[in-house]
Amino acid sequence: MLFVVCGPPAAGKSSWIRAHAKAADIVIDLDLIALAMAGPGADHHNHSPELLRIVYRARTAAIHEAEQVLDRTDVYLIHTMPGAKARTRYKRLGARIITVDPGEAIVRQRVKDMRQPAMEGVVTRWYRDHRKGGSRPVTRQASRDW
Predict the structure, then answer these.
(1) pTM of this prediction?
(2) Local structure of residue 83 (DSSP, 8 states)
(3) Would you give the DSSP letter of residue 39?
């Protein structure tokens, strides 16, 4: 089964996966891939354009390979804001779409406290698109104590 975990930055997508995935499952998380490829002491959420270019390609390859094993293992994929083409692809694969959203006020405070200022724009865009019906919340509670 493919689980596509969506939500704004700092919503708790990774925490949701840690609470649900098993050790044998596959987790595709852009930030974890970036950390694996970055030098020692790299920031968990602030990546250089050079690193991101490589990480996005690695993530795309990982998704493609994971599609081949969906009949044998669960795959958890973080995709903050999948576009129409990606949603169609996920639907074709029989994915379960999970939207983690503890609420805009909580997300904005988390981003202010723990993320780079550029993420505020991503939050604004996510909630603007969300209000247009781009996704439905599955959980409104906070994912963990920050």
Answers:
(1) 0.85
(2) -
(3) P
CATH number assigned to the domain with residue range 2-134, chosen from the 4 options 3.40.50.150, 3.40.50.1820, 3.40.50.300, 3.40.50.1000: 3.40.50.300
Rounded to whole angstroms, the Cα distance separating 135 from 7 reads 9
Q: What is the pLDDT of residues 80-108, one digit of tens each?
A: 999 999 999 999 999 999 999 999 999 99
How far apart, in Å, do the first and last CA atoms of the chain sit? Answer: 30
Structure tokens at 5: 């975990």
Q: How far apart are CA 92 and CA 87, in angstroms?
A: 9
| Helix, strand or coil, per DSSP, at residue 11 | coil
> Is the CB of residue 99 less than 8 Å from the CB of residue 50?
no
Taking the CA of residue 26 as centre, how many other CA atoms within 13 Å lie in the half-sphere pointing to its CB?
20
Q: What percent of the chain has pLDDT over 70?
A: 90
CA angle 93–59–51, rounded 5-degree value: 160
Residue 51 parent element (H or E): helix 49-67
